[in-house]
Amino acid sequence: MKHEQLAKDILSGVGGKQNINSVVHCATRLRFKLKNDNNAKTDELKNLPGIITVMQSGGQYQVVVGNEVSDVYKALLQVGNMNADEPVSSDDSESSGKKESLLGQFIDLISGVFTPILGLLAATGMIKGFLSMFTSLEWLDPSSGTYQLLNAAGDCLFYFFPIFLGYTAMKKFGGSPFLGMAIGASLVYPTLSGLSGGEPLYTLFAGTLFESPIHITFLGIPVILMSYSSSVIPIIIAAYFGAKVEAFFKKIIPSVVRTFLTPFFTILIVVPVTFLLIGPIATWASQLIGAGVSGIYDLSPLVTGIIVGGLWQVLVIFGLHWGIVPIMLLNLSTLKADPILAMMFAASFAQIGAVLGVMLKTKNTKLKSLGVPAFVSGIFGVTEPAIYGLTLPLKKPFIMSCIASATAGGIIGFAGSKMFVFASGIFGVPALISPTEGINYEFWMAMIATIIAFVLGFVLVYFVGFKDPANPEAAKQAPEPVKEEKAALEPNPNNRYEIASPMTGEVVPLQEINDATFAGEHMGKGIAIRPTSGRVVSPINGVVQTIYRTKHAIGLVDDQGVEILIHIGQDTVQLKGQHFTAHVKDGDRVSVGDLIVEFDLQAIIEAGYETVTPIIVTNTADYLDVVATTSREVQEKDKLVTVIG
Question: Which of 177, 212, 301, 377 counts the most CB atoms within 10 A of its CB?
Fold first, then answer.
């Protein structure tokens, strides 16, 4: 229920259910295919609490939610009365007519096929990785029943990959997902696999790269038996073909017998064609792609590592990293190891190193609060909260993290490190352990590179720095205020700074308000006011540091560097800007008494919210003391707080 309102807002923001063709989600994003992107209210969505950012990439309209995306997705399906297993709509009559690029179509295809199983793929990969670690450390005997059961749990997805991909690919292509599963299951049918071990009837393409022994025929046509376990491309192509065949039979078969005759004829045609034609050609193509990637990597592992490591987070921003996922999986299925996964492994640690640098360097309380969840998510390989919430908006930290990641990627490439299962974040550590060689040189070099990525990301951000929104120097660099005949609240010679009252009302000590964060002075010292009117004016001569998107909180910094937070009411963030009107924006200069925000006091009270408003000096630690007025009531511009330097 707690995600229901956000889901409703998102549904409205993307233009309603009638504007959605399909929606899926990955680790942090809702990925929409909209009929018309112009019908979406992008700016409104970006300002919603609970949404990190909104972007359009790879032919998709992506709403970045963060770690709770799966819960938001479920709520979205519920409030929109949508079915996760079916396209929301196939009516393109309102389409904008904008033709999607080939790259966009490819990214959309890959993300649609792999997104639903990405979490399961990572989970089973973690099990396999830990098994490698436990056997390398001799904690577990590979011949034991415990190992065998856990190995089955870890290997089940990848071994029967065609079945899972058959479901997701068929769904993506608009066919019946269970038909896709049936086609995939035929590819890994154990009896057919066992037929390839005997004496062949004859050999096709003898003496070429495509030499193939023939063990069985179908209606006299030779069948090239291959191992399709863990394969990727054959089932995706077969599912595409199957969706087209199914659609054809749905059109020509009467509805009274369509339920069973459509899958009957579809399977009867698609399975033989897959074994005779699609499977062998797709497998050879997969091997050629894998060989090509290995060839590029072998030219210069160092340079390849620098490029992959340095650009990985850039690809993540635009969702283009999905284009590399099939190559990773191809390498894992054909080569049993993948260097690309290893080279990008340190990128998330470079990112959280940069986040730590921001957290320790910034004076902005909002950035500090965003840093903790972003750091924790990054440990587990989910970096979008860090990228969109911190490093990318600040620019330099993102660049520094890419430099750190490129450095680590180069080291990993040079060492020849590889990943042996699909995993990310801290769980990728055991995935770097070779099942045959155990903990070796390549593993330790990958660990050293990862530590370097984290430390370098932190050091570069902390010492090179960035433009801190909370840095008092930002106020000093702002244009000089217009000289007034009589300046209000000039600092006195004793290094004391007077903060005026931003509103009219009853003075309330911080310790008496019903909010532990403010009452405990965790955000700084100050005072609170229970307002009697719906106006907030500037208490200082300075700069508007932040107007929160819900307009219930304002951050200011005066010309002497005193940082002020005005938080209108308690829990009023839940109003999402309703009843609030902002008259300034971030970066505006203000003088004492300038109107900043108006709010409907009575409406907020009737909505059940407490209106007592804390006024906090958030950089209290920079001063000797902060002393509040002893008056019981104040008017706008009355002396409220004295900051002693």
Answer: 377
CATH 3.30.470.10 is the classification of domain 496-644: no
3-state secondary structure of 527: strand
Structure tokens at 149: 């059961």
* Residue 503 exposure: Cα atoms within 13 Å on the Cβ side: 28
Cα–Cα distance list, 136 to 55, 345, 436 (Å):
44, 21, 9
**CA gap 443, 439 in Å, rounded:** 6
- For residue 643, what is the enclosing H or E element? strand 639-644
4-100 classified as CATH 3.30.1360.60? yes
* Residue 579: φ, ψ to 5°: 75, 5
E strand or H helix at 29: strand 29-34
Report the SS3 class of residue 403: helix
Question: Which residues form the catalytic set?
Answer: 26, 567
Both tokens assigned to 478: 């702002």
Q: Could you tell me which of 592, 602, 642 has the C-alpha nearest to residue 620?
A: 642
Q: Are 243 and 175 in contact (CB under 8 A)?
A: yes
Question: In 3-state terms, what secondary structure has residue 506?
Answer: strand
CA distance 102 to 205: 34
Q: What are the structural domain ranges in the chain?
A: 4-100, 160-298, 300-464, 496-644
Cβ-based neighbour number of residue 628 at 10 Å: 18
CA 478 from chain centre, in angstroms, equals: 35
**Mean pLDDT lowest among 19-23, 204-208, 391-395, 447-451:** 204-208
pLDDT digits (tens, 9 = 90+) for 323-361: 677 778 777 877 788 898 899 999 999 999 999 999 998
C-alpha span between 165 and 229 (Å, rounded)? 12
Asked if 505 and 533 touch (Cβ cutoff 8 Å), the reply is yes
Instruction: Give φ, ψ of 491 to 5 degrees.
Output: -65, 140
H, E, C per residue of 431-474: HCCECCCECCHHHHHHHHHHHHHHHHHHHHHHHHCCCCCCCHHH
Across 163-186, b (16+ Cβ under 10 Å) vs e yields bbbbbbbbbbbebbbebbbbbbeb
Cα–Cα distance list, 37 to 15, 16, 47, 172, 423 (Å)? 8, 12, 18, 20, 33
DSSP E strand stretches across 472-561: 496-500, 505-508, 525-531, 535-537, 542-547, 553-558
Does residue 276 have a pLDDT over 50?
yes
**Rounded-to-integer distance, Cα 327 and Cα 74, Å:** 30
| pTM, full prediction | 0.56
Angle formed by the axes of helices 255-273 and 233-252, nearest 10°: 150
- Size (the chain), residues: 645
Cα atoms found within 13 Å of the Cα of residue 214, Cβ hemisphere only: 15
Q: Which residues of 551-573 are buried (b: 16+ CB within 10 A; e: fewer)?
A: bbbbbbbbbbbbbbbbbbbbebb
C-alpha to C-alpha distance for 289 and 283, rounded to whole angstroms: 10
Nearby residues of 94 by Cβ (< 8 Å), 6 or more positions away: 18, 19, 35, 36, 39
* Amino acid in the structure at residue 302: L
